[in-house]
Amino acid sequence: MTYCLGIKVKEGLVALADTRITAGTNTTVKKKMYVTQKDSYSLFIMTSGLRSVRDKAVHYFEELINEGVVYNKLYKAVNAFGEQIKRVAEEDRANLERSGFKFNLNTIVGGQLKDDAEHKLFLLYSEGNWVELDEGSPYVIIGNSGQGKAILNRVLNEYSTMKQALKAGFLSFDSTRVSNNDVDFPIDIVLYKKDSFSIIEHRYEKKDMEKISEIWADKLKQALDDIPEDWMDKPFEVIDNG
């Protein structure tokens, strides 16, 4: 399973992806983030699904870029990547399904290209269709999303800073990690500030973030202790007098 998160705030974009790949009893570390940038052209791609489908689709898309194809708006690049997913589906879907594998590749694409008025964030489905994230939905998760949504829903909005978004994003990942043994460190992050046309990449190992995880666990325990208990008096009186 995968954990990939993209966040869009007024200030810019924050993205985070775990690197764990599990196949049977084998566990490896593989990058799930593809980044390409040049003058007035910055985008990143994160994927969740079959690794073979992901690698092939990214390779086909990268080939287009290397051959000189230029997109002036991000949605056009998203359309192009969607076409590569459809191309891989035509080539591989039947054989994969005969072997018992479901053809799936969910993708987060973010960035800003020359004629985009602002930074953009898209969710692209296996069928090649997509939706754009807006102010009403500042984040998207693909992969193992269940445990990581609560904190994001509570603290994130379009006016959050990029630092707040990264903190919330890490805590969302950490909540997922402690509940699932197929999501783990290292994690790759991407930062993109609006109109900068410069993507910053960084990798965090477990040892880099252990202290933050400990602080978060302690804060949660303290918050639990701080919750008033008078609302529980009546049912517990029954237990105590029973």
TrEMBL record:
One GO biological process term: proteolysis involved in protein catabolic process
Pfam families in the cross-refs: Proteasome
Any Gene Ontology CC annotation: proteasome core complex
Domain of life: Bacteria
Protein's recorded name: Peptidase
